[in-house]
Amino acid sequence: MMQDSIDFGTMNIPKLFRKMFIPTLLGMVLSATITIIDGIFVGRGVGSDALAAVNIVAPFFMLSAGIGLMFGVGASIVASIHLAHNKVKVASINITQAITVSLSITVLLCALVMLFRTDMAYLLGSSDLLLPLVLEYMNWIVPFLACNMLLSVGLFVIRLDGSPTFAMMCSAVPAAINLVLDYVLVFPLQLGLAGAAIASVISVVVGSIMILVYLLKYNKVLYLYRPKFSLKSIRLTIRNIGYMIKLGFSAFLNEAAIACMMLVGNYVFIHYLGEDGVAAYSVACYWFPIVFMVNNAIAQSTQPIISYNYGAGQWIRVKQAFRLSLKFAIICGALACLVTIVLCPAVVSLFLGSTGNAREIAIQGIPYFALGFLFFALNIVCIGYFQSIEKFKQATFFTVLRGIVIITVCFVSLPLLWGIKGIWLAVPFTELITFAIIVSYYLRQHFKR
């Protein structure tokens, strides 16, 4: 079992950040490849309509991962603070409550979606033409979203337990399994969209099993308690869960923001450009998780460092970790923008082949979409900082602003001003406006102090 020597309270901040960031980054990038590999095999092996269908179902992935992130961030912050005060049992109880409740919520939501799956498909923007493909993919994916959620929340717990390398393996192993099975099921076995869905299901099931095995047998500090159902226990669980949700709600909204970006974008693209427009937009949505995961790795690597030292009252270490995360965000955001613009034709061809209307739409539009990556990186890190120091109101406000309010306004208004180019610029404008608001707030608070 891979375990790491980590002391959040005394270790040199740059060294501590590297020990957290490198395995977290590798794990998250490998995890994002599950989505990207699916897109490549679906686009080349099944067709652009299937790719559009997957993009319509994708918000369910975001929802399950968002629930996992919400409880993972919330429980990790609370447990970090308890560990800073040597309250190991309390921290472990918080972790147990987070996993138990998040699993229950996800299972209930999956049951409701399956009960009304046709209505949900239309609600997510499916056309009559795409409906059979959307339902085919949903029937395989939705019942196993609880495993995707458990994988999301479990990675936080394992990193906090001091084993970021094993957390990386919990992402790397499913990614490798998905790669092999995607090829086998889509091409030699010719199972089409169902094959890609089965490959994804098997990979996340394996990842969730790895999480459970670690927590039950190989944990170092944190461990799972048997749930209690006395009135007092239920009351305390509700109180603790409520606080975790407050702390982690903006993390859920980050995923909801991506789901909203996909949902509103699907509606706008299908309105202006039809199914080819949705297929072109799906390439951007497949590529975007890589950018998101890299910057989320920065935020999640600094979160336990900031939360632990915030709980211990070591503000110099808190500020040092935050400044370091900003530097990495600038570098990673700028590189993501440059790489996407330069490699755009090659990336699009991986998904949509060398010809076709959807391919041309994507090649013309994705460079505009990539202009927002730098500000997106800074926004994710800043919101993560507010989460880590228990400023959940600010974190939630900025996340709702960028993920729901501003992006909806931009998707509706910018096409009226600049046509098709305006659709692609909706996300960059959203990130730029949000970053300007966050900077204004931070400077105002700084001058007040």
TrEMBL record:
Pfam families: MatE. It is a multi-pass membrane protein. InterPro entries: MATE_fam (IPR002528), MATE_MepA-like (IPR045070), MATE_MepA_subfamily (IPR051327), MdtK-like (IPR048279). Its main location: membrane. This is Multidrug export protein MepA. Signal peptide: none annotated. Keywords: Antibiotic resistance, Cell membrane, Membrane, Transmembrane, Transmembrane helix, Transport. The keyword Transmembrane helix applies. The chain crosses the membrane at residues 21-41, 61-83, 95-117, 137-158, 165-185, 191-216, 247-272, 278-298, 328-353, 365-386, 398-417, 423-443. It is found in: Cell membrane. CDD domains: MATE_MepA_like. Belongs to the multi antimicrobial extrusion (MATE) (TC 2.A.66.1) family. MepA subfamily. The keyword Cell membrane applies.
